From TrEMBL:
GO terms for molecular function: DNA binding. Residues 186-338 form the Tc1-like transposase DDE domain. Residues 107-179 form the Transposase Tc1-like domain. One of its GO terms (biological process) is DNA integration. Signal peptide: none annotated. This is Transposable element Tcb2 transposase. InterPro entries: RNaseH_sf (IPR036397), Tc1-like_DDE_dom (IPR038717), Transposase_5 (IPR052338), Transposase_Tc1-like (IPR002492).
């Protein structure tokens, strides 16, 4: 064909290779993501007039370079190139592809149904849709429409159930402590926690091929009885922390006094002038004999609302220990070995991290007031 002088910008062969390279430089998009690849062709040959398509043959050597760089089949490259040279476009035709089986009004109805019952599965929503409209709609279509509307199925947050009295007392406690600032630095937060020998957070996934579901390496055994583990007690202050104690067996009020309060908690409190002791409302903590012991030892207690682990920063310490145990690739052979690891993590925690948790107390109280005694993000 006749070629105008000084028209190097019309030669699109090199541009095609460069454009595809830019589109694929960071990672190789999946085969179904061809619009990005077509856009790259358009960027490279965009200088060709769209009203007069130029049928420029793609040289074999250059095509091989494009195919090799993008790791695409040669037919894919040629199809994209032919679409441009024949139709002067890189986008899909308007109205092409399968049509939605629902209208915009139907989509709004689906969203209202999903928001009315947040825990309803796509199959349940499909059944409700069939009852309400008389039209059958499969669960996969429900999922696609809700995804396009921004509603994605996610893992819910699990929280302790709160009654009306729980919320009222939590809000009352928050209002009483809303003006505390430096006072929190005098509080000693204490708690017990249990760490299991086989720890996971319920989100384990198994990578397998189809048909491998019942392979032994793809099965996670679930114990019907109590999982072996260790129970520990600890306390944190703004500048210090207590020794971590291991509790074997069930903890009652007598053991709480004999194994926790007398040997560790009270001496720890006495070493901190003006310390205020916090504990939750577990039965061993609130027994009459324990209250008498605190009175005899002149221990000042911080009143604590029921069902309020979100207000105690030591709960986050247990969470940190649990996540670090889960990240450790070494298998734990026994409860004694697990105890050593938990104790090591406890002793290695930076005190500055604990102080950050103490500094969050005013924000926790404010969040509890904003939630009117309900659940907070902590």
């Amino acid at each position: 064909m006749d070629w105008p002088t000084r028209s190097l910008e019309l030669n699109s062969i090199q541009h095609v290779r460069d454009a595809v390279a830019m589109a694929d430089s960071s990672h190789h998009p999946p085969l179904r993501a061809l619009p990005e690849l077509k856009t790259a062709f358009a960027a490279g040959v965009g200088s060709i007039a769209t009203d007069t398509p130029q049928v420029l043959p793609l040289q074999h050597a250059v095509m091989l370079q494009v195919v090799s760089h993008c790791e695409r089949n040669s037919s894919t490259v040629m199809r994209v190139w032919k679409q441009w040279t024949d139709e002067c476009r890189t986008t899909r035709k308007s109205g092409s592809g399968p049509r939605n089986v629902t209208s915009a009004r139907d989509d709004r109805h689906l969203v209202r149904m999903a928001r009315t019952d947040r825990t309803a599965s796509s199959r349940q929503l499909a059944a409700l849709w069939s009852i309400a409209t008389g039209v059958s709609l499969c669960a996969s279509s429900i999922r696609r429409r809700l995804l396009q509307c921004g509603l994605r199925a996610r893992t819910p947050l699990y929280r302790i159930p709160l009654t009306h009295d729980h919320r009222r007392l939590r809000l009352q406690w928050a209002n009483q402590h809303r003006d505390w600032r430096a006072d929190w630095q005098h509080v000693v937060f204490s708690d017990e926690s249990r760490f299991n020998l086989w720890y996971h957070d319920g989100r384990i996934r198994v990578r397998r091929y189809a048909g491998e579901r019942h392979l032994p390496e793809c099965i996670i055994e679930r114990h019907s009885g109590r999982t072996p583990g260790v129970m520990v007690w600890g306390a944190i202050a703004y500048h210090r922390r207590s020794q971590l104690l291991r509790i074997v067996g069930n903890l009652n009020s007598n053991r709480y006094i004999r194994e926790v309060l007398q040997p560790e908690a009270v001496p720890f409190l006495q070493s901190l002038p003006g310390a205020v002791f916090q504990q939750d409302n577990a039965r061993p903590h609130t027994a009459r004999i324990v209250k008498s012991f605190f009175a005899a030892q002149q221990v000042q207690l911080l009143p604590w609302p029921a069902c309020s682990p979100d207000m105690s920063p030591i709960e986050h310490v247990w969470d940190v220990i649990g996540r670090r145990l889960a990240r450790d690739p070494r298998p734990v052979a026994s409860a004694d070995e697990l105890w050593v690891r938990v104790q090591t993590i406890w002793n290695a925690l930076p005190q500055s991290d604990i102080q950050t948790l103490f500094d969050s107390m005013p924000r926790r109280v404010a969040a509890l007031i904003a939630a009117r005694g309900g659940h907070t993000k902590y």
